Amino acid sequence: MKVADYSKVPAGGMKIPRLKTYDVEKKERVGVDININWDHSAEHLANSVLPCVPDGLELKMISNRGTKVWPDGQAETFCADNWRLRFKGTDGRIICTSEVISMMDALNKADINVTKMIMLHNFDGVPGYTVAQGE
Questions:
Q1: Does residue 60 contact residue 86 with C-beta atoms inside 8 Å?
Q2: Helix (H, G, I), strand (E, B) or coil at 64
Q3: What is the sign of the dihedral through the CA atoms of 133, 119, 91 and 57?
Q4: Cα distance between residue 82 and residue 76, in whole Å
Q5: Comparing 18-22, 27-31, 72-76, which segment has the lowest mean pLDDT?
Q6: 8 A C-beta contact, residue 52 and residue 112
Q7: For residue range 107-120, what is the model confidence (pLDDT) as tens digits?
Q8: What is the dihedral of CA 56, 113, 67, 129, to 10 degrees?
Q9: What is the spatial distance between Cα 71 and Cα 60, in angstroms, rounded to a whole number?
């Protein structure tokens, strides 16, 4: 490989454009989506999960393949083995990471296989996450 020669490059280096400024947004954690692997019905899943939910959080809905299946889901909805549980702070309150970790520990102890977790945030009061069909 040939040695690079920068002796003919003008002094001053590379010109980097100024960074754009952005307004600071108020970011609030309002919930969490927890994905699990499950081979039974949505109702059985809800009954297994509800005892694991700590005070201050509530199970708002369960979806499968993007469709709400609990509460008030359609029994004929075809479900795969990957489920999303959406938890929100009770009465719209902000939640803490420690609450989520505590609940995930309880789910683990109940032999519920957690596969993924995503925190849900509002930015300046606007949800930064999508809703499921029927939510």
A1: yes
A2: strand
A3: positive
A4: 17
A5: 72-76
A6: yes
A7: 999 999 999 999 99
A8: 50
A9: 8
Tokens of 12: 């001053």
- The amino acid at residue 103 is M
**Token pair belonging to 116:** 């993924």
- Sign of torsion over alpha carbons 35, 40, 41, 46: negative
* pLDDT (tens digit per residue) in 50-104: 999 999 999 999 999 888 999 888 777 888 999 999 999 999 899 999 999 999 9
Q: Rounded CA gap, 135 and 68, in Å? A: 7
Six token digits for residue 31:
């919930």
- Per the structure block, which two tokens stand in for 131? 């809703």
| H or E stretch covering 37 | strand 27-37
Please give the domain boundaries of the chain with CATH numbers for all domains.
27-127 (3.30.70.1570)
Place of tokens 């490989």: 1
Would you state the structure tokens that stand for residue 6, as one six-digit string?
């920068």
